[in-house]
Amino acid sequence: MEILKTTGIALSSHVSGEADIICNYYTIDSGKRKFVFKGLRKSRKRSLSATEPGTVANIVYYHREDRGSFIVNDVSIEKYYSSFSADLKKIFHLYFILECVEKTTGYEARDESLFRLLIAAIEVLSKTNYPAHLTAFFTLRLLKGHGILPDLATCKICGKKISSQFTLDLIDLRPVCGICLADDRGGPVQGSALLSRDMIVYVNECNVKKFSMIDLGRYQEEDVLNLIFTYSLFMENYFHWELKSKSFILSARYR
Ligand SMILES: [Zn+2]
Fold first, then answer.
1. Which residue of 23, 72, 134, 157 sits 20 to 30 Å from the alpha carbon of 165, by its own alpha carbon?
2. Maximum CA extent, the chain
3. What is the pLDDT of residues 110-128, one digit of tens each?
């Protein structure tokens, strides 16, 4: 057994036994990893904030090759976002982003660019006035990183540029224009809500630009939430699980 050190972002945690806390982190060097904090709930020395979703922490732990979880020896907090606790809307977006990472990644699968993407997204989310825009941006980049983002410029059926309302086919996320949708020529399309034309522009901006370079005010939050809704349905369909946190940010779509 050796003692190792890593940096990770807390994804989710739960209590185990009387005082232990088990926390999944997305680490810089090993991807998703499960850590056990022995006695943390009763500890006066150590703070619970290391295990709060979104916290960035440096973790020293006992490493054993044959174990699925690792016992923490020491932890120090690198970044704790107290600003989230005052903003319910941002907390919900944070949970959604973290759940997307947790559920689309396996244990021990190193992906440093995803680590960097996630850490940057949380930082931006803590400051932005456009949390929905950030969530849509993040989700698109996450899917791109996983190699499942298709060509987004043209209609999957007629091959023309999207110039009016459209949908994204939930099978492969490729756009289908309103005309082809109405026409039904390409066979049934498993699409979700109709998206405004602005969203194809936004999606393409997210694909190639930095978030800070996008003129976010051009895009209506309602449109962006429809886009997130579509991504959620796609991911649930693709990975065969349910995104529990989607109902918090998309509640209006479930009434
Ligand atoms: Zn078309």
1. 134
2. 66
3. 999 999 999 999 999 999 9
